Amino acid sequence: MDTNDDPDEDHLTSYDIQLSIQESIEDSKTEFYRERFIPLSDQNRKLVEAIKQGHILELQEYVKYKYALDEADEKGWFPLHEAVVQPIQQILEIVLDASYKTLWEFKTSDGETPLTLAIKAGLVENVRTLLEKGIWPNTKNDKGETPLLIGK
């Protein structure tokens, strides 16, 4: 009898429960962001612009405003989603370190996770960074695709 089966099954059961809860929370938040009535803050706009332009020094200042990291645009993209598709790995690291871990698995309005976006962008170092920081590698996008399936 293999004693490793029980811990693996417990881990998988725990993961299934976590994933179900997380998907439920994400579904409710996605609806909220699609019907946003409150405009994005100036800090969020500056933060996203610094990410897109690759301005690391400005970005380090803007991430101090934690609330700006929690705001999504009309596409459901948080600053983290913008950071994962940028080729400068340091940008992603700064945003990840400043973000709450609960945001790391949030999906865009199109159902993409930060990891699936990085894979689709072909940014191997960003994928590696996400995995090293603890992003779950099996979270599916809304099409039911896992990052591994997309990366083939």
From TrEMBL:
<dbReference type="Pfam" id="PF12796">
    <property type="entry name" value="Ank_2"/>
</dbReference>
<feature type="repeat" description="ANK">
    <location>
        <begin position="110"/>
        <end position="142"/>
    </location>
</feature>
<dbReference type="InterPro" id="IPR002110">
    <property type="entry name" value="Ankyrin_rpt"/>
</dbReference>
<keyword id="KW-0677">Repeat</keyword>
<protein>
    <submittedName>
        <fullName>Ankyrin repeat and SOCS box containing 15</fullName>
    </submittedName>
</protein>
<dbReference type="InterPro" id="IPR036770">
    <property type="entry name" value="Ankyrin_rpt-contain_sf"/>
</dbReference>
<dbReference type="GO" id="GO:0005737">
    <property type="term" value="C:cytoplasm"/>
</dbReference>
<keyword id="KW-0040">ANK repeat</keyword>
